[in-house]
Every structure is written in structure tokens, then in C-alpha cells.
Amino acid sequence: MTVHATQSSSEPLRLAGHEQTVFKTIFSPDSRQLATVSADMTVRLWDLDTRSELFRLRLPYEFNNQVPLWDFDFRCTPTGCWIAVPLTSGKLALYNLGKINYD
Q1: What angle do CA 95, 96, 99 make, to 5 degrees?
Q2: Average pLDDT over residues 20-48
Q3: From the CB of residue 24, how many other CB atoms can be counted at a distance below 10 Å?
Q4: How far is CA 90 from CA 20, 68, 80, 85, 87, in A?
């Protein structure tokens, strides 16, 4: 996946990992992380400063026919980061990523 900065002429960021089409991306409020969801049934959290993967969530096989992959949400607060994945069954899968610290 390639991320282009619209406010500068810097080189695009290349983030390697997803094996299929990326359906949705969400930046963290501070723009230091990027959450992505893909047809490969993974949700990934990226550190844009280091261009590294911070977290990978492989959705369980039984989610294959239940998850509208383009409709997930990602939020960070001072106490931690969360990914919410709505299921077509009407349930919500909520994953606590914990607090992301930078050294």
C-alpha cells in the first residue's frame, strides 16, 4: 500500500503487508498511525513515522460472511486505541489495542 502526502512533495510511504485489496483507511487524530482493513481479513495499525506495522488483527474465519469490511472504525484516546468491527449479525466486535507509546 502506498500513502501519498497531499501537503508536501515528500516521497510516498510504502507499507507492505496486506495480501489483498485495502478497503478502508483511518488516520489517528495525531496522524501518526494509520488503521487499514483489507479483503485478506486483516485489520492493521501502522506507525507512519517508522513505516512499521504496530498491530495486526486477523479476523476469525467465521467473520468472512458477517463483516462489511469497509465499515470498521478506529479511535485513540489518552487511555488507549480501539478498533470496532460491525457484524451483519447486528453484533459489534470491539478490540482494545492498548496504549501506544512512543519512545
Answers
A1: 150
A2: 81
A3: 16
A4: 26, 11, 25, 11, 6
Q: What is the pTM of this model?
A: 0.67
For residues 43 and 5, is the Cβ–Cβ distance under 8 A?
Answer: no
- Report how far apart, in Å, the C-alpha atoms of 49 and of each of 15, 46, 64 are: 11, 9, 32
Provide the grid cell at 82: 480501539
Measured CA angle at 1 (ends 97, 37), to 5 deg:
40
**Rounded Cα–Cα distance for residues 80 and 40 (Å):** 25
Give the integer Cα–Cα distance in Å for 83 and 19: 20
CA distance 70 to 91: 16
Angle at 43 between CA 72 and CA 60, to 5 degrees: 95
The grid cell for 38 is 483489507
Rounded CA separation 67/35 (Å): 16
> pLDDT at position 70, please?
55
Q: Which residues pair with 92 in a beta bridge?
A: 86
The grid cell for 63 is: 467473520
